[in-house]
Design a protein that fits this description.
The chain is an all-alpha fold. The protein is built from 14 helices and no strands. It has one domain.
């Protein structure tokens, strides 16, 4: 790239001041943590309304939705990454082509996911260890979870555009509109008719409201659809990035959700309800800092688009110096608060949940330390590294969890989670940052930034 071209691209990035980055991080944290905190706040109500058996079905449905929502060929994280990359280049035409391609792809994937879950949901629920009185509710809930998945996948297109343009405030508005949709559907449903399937329908209303707000915000913000899709070489490059991202996101998610699925398969549903309470709080503890990393990833991606690894490595060094003390302080405050929430607020009747929560918090601690490096690897076009980390974690977690759960029940998930977290954290610190002479692979090569 000519020097003048590089200078002009860097100039376009100067509007992202530190104050802007702090505001964007805060808005994205609110947008992504809001639904998690809402789910956390709803947990006492759900447990009291559904009892532990019904709450176990709810936990199983959430795990199913989370896994199905991430089987998108890796297009979800790829969409936001390429919108940010094209923005760094100043290429609006490429953004319009990407919008059309992403929307058509997500409509296809969302419809297929909804159809598959609708057809097999009854069979899945029939194998759950539930009372006959709950079996029909479980069948409807798992079947209709496909609607939640389809709406969520389509929403990824518009949220990816908004995030790629650093419009995190609009992302937050959509997230809270979704919470409003959940509450409205719940409020208009008579309490006598409410069951676990009703709350899945509330989740569908939540995703629908979020989708509408994000779509309106994206169009107002300049999202346009070209009457064509990207050229084949670009589609091939996008899919090259996407399938590696799919492996990374799918293995990471399955590692997190496999515990619920294994417990649900081999233990009474009440045990799954107990674990679900602890896992909900522990996952919120783990995810809150990670949600704040998305603006950092967008910024590093735009810098990489303009100045390749030299600028990205400088950004990593600066960001990591700030990340470490934040994570230490967060852990010292948030971990005791999380334990107190479960013990004093959610369910003091179930002491096992407190014990499981404590060990899960310890197990997730190493993941927090590697947060900025994970964002950096994605930004510089290295989903293959993240895929390897995901596979390592999955093999360790699932390979050890199944026999341990058979022997000691829900407590058997803790050790494998801790080992997988520690091993993958050490690995990413060893191999990053990448040097200028690193073999970057075809996807994310230095020519991509020029």
């Amino acid at each position: 790239m000519p020097v003048g071209g590089l200078g002009s691209k860097l100039a376009r990035l100067r509007f992202v001041s530190r104050a802007d980055l702090v505001r964007q991080t805060g808005a994205n944290a609110v947008a992504t943590a809001g639904p998690q905190l809402f789910l956390l706040a709803m947990t006492p109500l759900l447990v009291s309304r559904l009892a532990l058996g019904g709450y176990g079905i709810w936990t199983f449905c959430l795990a199913t939705i989370a896994i199905a929502s991430n089987v998108d060929g890796g297009l979800g994280p790829t969409i936001s990454r390429y919108f940010a990359l094209y923005r760094g280049r100043g290429d609006e035409g490429a953004q319009h082509l990407l919008a059309t391609f992403a929307t058509l792809s997500m409509l296809l994937l969302g419809g297929l996911s909804a159809l598959v879950l609708h057809e097999v949901g009854g069979a899945i629920a029939s194998h759950m260890h539930v009372h006959d009185a709950l079996r029909s509710q479980a069948q409807v809930a798992v079947r209709d979870a496909g609607i939640v998945v389809g709406l969520g996948l389509l929403g990824n297109v518009f949220s990816g555009y908004l995030r790629g343009r650093a419009s995190f405030g609009l992302v937050a508005v959509g997230a809270f509109a979704g919470i409003g949709g959940f509450l409205v559907y719940w409020a208009v449903t008579p309490e006598s008719k409410a069951n676990v399937a009703t709350y899945i329908h509330c989740a569908a209303a939540q995703n629908a409201c979020t989708l509408v707000v994000w779509a309106i915000g994206a169009v107002i913000g300049g999202m346009r659809f070209a009457p064509a899709v990207p050229a084949f070489p670009e589609i091939r490059e996008i899919f090259g990035f996407a399938w590696r991202s799919q492996i990374a996101s799918a293995t990471s998610l399955v590692s997190l959700q496999a515990d619920s699925l294994v417990i649900g398969a081999v233990c009474p549903v009440r045990t799954l309800g107990i674990y679900g309470i602890a896992a909900t709080v522990a996952t919120a503890f783990r995810n809150l800092p990670f949600y704040a990393l998305f603006p950092i990833r967008v910024r590093v991606t735009t810098i990489f688009g303009a100045s390749a690894l030299q600028g990205a490595n400088r950004a990593l060094s600066e960001l990591e110096r700030r990340w470490r003390p934040i994570i230490v302080g967060y852990s010292l405050i948030a971990a005791p608060v999380a334990v107190a929430i479960v013990y004093y607020w959610l369910t003091p009747r179930v002491g096992e949940a407190v014990v499981i929560l404590f060990f899960l918090l310890v197990a997730y601690a190493p993941d927090l330390a590697a947060g900025v490096r994970v964002a950096y690897a994605n930004a510089v076009g290295q989903p293959g590294l993240l895929a390897r980390l995901g596979v390592i974690a999955l093999v360790i977690n699932v390979g050890l969890t199944v026999p341990l759960v058979l022997v000691i029940g829900a407590y058997g998930v803790v050790g494998p989670t801790a080992i997988a977290s520690l091993v993958t954290t050490v690995y990413i610190f060893v191999v990053t940052p990448f040097g200028q002479s690193s073999t970057m692979g075809r996807v994310g090569t230095l020519r991509e930034a020029t």
